[in-house]
Design a protein that fits this description.
It is a single chain. This protein is α/β, with parallel strands linked by helices. The chain has 12 helices and 8 strands. 42% of the residues lie in helices and 16% in strands. Helix 1 links the parallel strand 1 and strand 2. Helix 1 packs parallel to helix 12, helix 5 crosses helix 7 and helix 7 packs across helix 9. The longest helix is centred in the last third of the chain and has 18 residues. The structure holds phosphoenolpyruvate. The site of phosphoenolpyruvate has 14 residues, from strand 8. Belongs to the triosephosphate isomerase family. Involved in the gluconeogenesis. Catalyzes stereospecifically the conversion of dihydroxyacetone phosphate (DHAP) to D-glyceraldehyde-3-phosphate (G3P). Pathway: Carbohydrate biosynthesis; gluconeogenesis; Carbohydrate degradation; glycolysis; D-glyceraldehyde 3-phosphate from glycerone phosphate: step 1/1. One of its GO terms (molecular function) is triose-phosphate isomerase activity.
Length: 250
């Protein structure tokens, strides 16, 4: 059985003191990690004190980005070596906002994913289609193209330990969530692509999250679907009560 994983993506929100008061408020109330993996992916500015603050609890910390290089002359980048040294657990890779606003390509995303595994972090690899692509009947082609390139060269073992966040771009931050039926079909398609690129065992092991306007009021319906193993949550992960409510609904 795949363990559910709920990850908050705070994006470029919160100050250090806001981040720390969130962590203090939720860290001892998250459900046990044998039931659900709970994480918040915060600005790189807060990762060190956040990791320190959650030590010994079931809350894990993730980065929202990671470099595909270890170190060197890459101004502004976030080293996977430094993330591992801090005991950061996850790194979001290929979020649609990074694909769109920072021109991240599938090749670059693939390189980051490999590097992240090399240093023992767990990637949360995002994929998803625009509204235009969905309405134009291109959903399958877009997802297959993204995943084929993003996963190229990864081993069966790595993909089995990967988290894939399926996030339809039209549902991110818009309040327009996919129906649970559409989200299930899309997450199943993601799993089918993994099966075709690897095999059934890998496809059964990989965890697939749905992301796009998930909130405490709708998470139960998503989590009841057989191919949805969790959620990547933006807006509804920012408030402690809402984040805890998401976890309690799993
Ligand atoms: C996200 O940032 O990945 C996301 C899904 O955001 P929201 O939950 O706000 O739609």
């Amino acid at each position: 059985m795949r363990k559910p994983i709920i990850a908050g993506n705070w994006k470029m929100n919160k100050t250090l003191s806001e981040a720390m008061s969130f962590v203090e408020e939720v860290k001892n109330s998250v459900p046990a990690s044998d039931k659900v993996d709970a994480a918040v992916c915060a600005s790189a500015l807060f990762l060190a004190p956040m990791v320190e603050a959650v030590k010994g609890t079931d809350l894990k910390i993730g980065s929202q980005n990671v470099s595909d290089k270890d170190s060197g002359a890459y101004t502004g980048e976030i080293s996977p070596v430094a993330l591992k040294d801090l005991n950061v657990t996850y790194a979001i890779i290929g979020h649609s906002e990074r694909r769109e606003y920072y021109s991240e390509t599938d090749e670059f995303i693939n390189s980051k994913t490999k590097k992240t595994f090399e240093h023992g972090l767990t990637p949360i690899l995002c994929c998803g289609e625009t509204l235009e692509e969905r309405e134009g009947g291109k959903f399958e082609e877009v997802i297959r193209t993204q995943l084929t390139a993003d996963l190229a060269g990864l081993t069966e073992d790595q993909v089995s330990n990967l988290v894939i966040a399926y996030e339809p771009i039209w549902a991110i931050g818009t309040g327009k969530s996919a129906t649970e039926k559409d989200a299930q079909e899309s997450c199943k398609f993601v799993r089918d692509v993994v099966a075709s690129l690897y095999n059934e065992n890998v496809a059964e092991a990989v965890r697939v999250q749905y992301g796009g306007s998930v909130k405490p009021e709708n998470i139960k319906e998503y989590m009841a679907q057989p191919d949805i193993d969790g959620a990547l949550v933006g807006g509804a992960s920012l408030e402690p009560a809402s984040f805890l409510a998401l976890l309690e609904a799993v």
